[in-house]
Amino acid sequence: MNRLASATSPYLLQHADNPVDWWPWCEEAFAEAKRRDVPVMISVGYAACHWCHVMAHESFEDAAVGALLNEGFVAIKVDREERPDVDAVYMTATQAMTGQGGWPMTVFATPDGTPFFCGTYFPKPNFVRLLGSVGTAWREQREAVLRQGAAVVEAIGGAQAVGGPSAPLTAELLDAAAAQLAGEYDDRNAGFGGAPKFPPHMNLLFLLRHHQRTGSAESLEIARHTAEAMARGGIYDQLAGGFARYSVDAHWTVPHFEKMLYDNALLLRFYTQLWRLTGDPLARRVARDVARFLADELHRPGEGFASALDADTEGVEGLTYVWTPAQLVEALGEEDGRWAADLFGVTESGSFEHGTSVLRLARDVDAADPAVRARWQDVVRRLLALRDTRPQPARDDKVVAAWNGLAITAIAEFVRLVETLGAAGHASVGGAAGADGDANLLEGVTIVADGAMRDAAEHLARVHVVDGRLRRVSRDGVVGEPAGVLEDYGCVAEAFCAMHQLTGEGRWLELAGQLLDVALARFAAPDGGFYDTADDAEQLVTRPADPTDNATPSGRSAIVAALVTYAALSGETRYREAAEAALATVAPIVARHARFTGYAATTGEALLAGPHEIAVVTDNPAGDPLVAAAYRHAPPGAVLVAGRPDQPGVPLLADRPMRDGRPTAYVCRGFACQQPVTTVDDLLAQL
User: Fold this and answer.
1) pTM
2) Residue of 351, 258, 270, 361 whose CA lies nearest to 308
């Protein structure tokens, strides 16, 4: 009997009609394996995963393969996005056994969950042979299997252990991390490493903050070069905005077409900050269009943001997105079609499969003359309208707390930049991008994105916080059973702090503090670090505690960022002390593996900067020049609250009156304050 029909996970629902007798992850599945004295086969994936679909079509939809699984195993299907704790434990085991990892992940375990053989995707013939071999080993070589499992658990227990070396995260360590990134930088194609190439969003955020602190031209150039290379590559959707998960090549041309919420949230934050610091017109355009993508394509009205768009359309990767020269001519006419083919690098030989091409921006048009830009945008609108009539990729509609937190924080920073600096006014800093129509588009996107952000924040507060604890996922307005893990608490608390700063409402800060108190009580480790699961959560074969930043911030980095921000907003030093202690457990990794500690290093820069606590007492927060100047020139990690004096629940505005009836800025750094000022020049001098 397949037991997935009532699942809330779209990934599990994709397997609800398989001939495999799937179980969801639950105690009953392991009890059944023990009763039958058979191994467990744990299959871990997610809805937008291309190779997960391939293995499903080849093996799990095949009746003969299903019969083999049902006869010899208890089969458990896990959505890694719902249960990142389960995924983390078995991914560590897979990497320990094979030297690599990925999804689908295929794990054979004892009835108590101990893994003894791990792998990823297996073609159907290999998978069938593997089922036979594992079944034979379980029946005839049980002692060897159990010894292998014990060795794997011992290995992954050490890999996930807390209590390692710690040291303060100093300026010297962060300078060394920036130098290490510069040494690993691909100065030809931008980014880091070869194929496949992933957007290094957290490292780029760190490099921007490092540039702010040190004035490093090299750090800024790495960030700008990578921003341009990604935005002009095929990894970026040149028609609708939004970034794909990664590029299969080293030069950003051909993407793996899935679009993940977390990537686009982190990239929106990076491009927004690049625009804030430099006025770059490309950064401004990409920030605007990624915000629009989040609001238009991933927002679920009345809920939050969906997790992803699928890599496949009707089982074919890239079907929605690729073009031939003939298709462009058919869509646009002969003259515009050939012009578009040149602009987007669409050739007869193609850059993808079967003579098709992924659109990339082969010409620099952001700073071109107005006529060229107008023609470009007209072509984009016409092609997008046609593309919308094609079959579209499926959407994974579940709402993941941590990823929604990342999106809320990113949109809040984007909205504040537009509000405080003015769409048309600041666009002129970037030159040609400031045309009236473009400014109007930016304002329209901002309004829609702001609404989606507030919707998501309200949904997290109303649906995901249950009895003071955070739940990981929801779908169709119904919260799921999986408990929130550390990254959920960190990312959502940081998002609530961002909402507090944007709205001036005290309830968001109160909610953030409640989540952080739970994290300190339930997730903290004796050495000052954190586990990824609560002390009263389901006990797995090991308790995960991964300190490294990968596709998303680690739980430890996320909680540290939230603690630092909350401490600055609330004035409560114990949260900062907890952050410093936790960051000290990551500092040795920052020194050795800078590429995998980008969010931790980003927060380290905030601590070195203070961070600054900026309060602007004003009757007009959105239009006050002091607020605009404060945000435009805010040091790394600064918090900023603006509003009338003594607003309830807003500590930064308490006991801070206007001077002589004029809007007044109060600047503090690490809880030590300077004289209040009433002019922009005096404020900038303090910043």
Assistant:
1) 0.92
2) 258
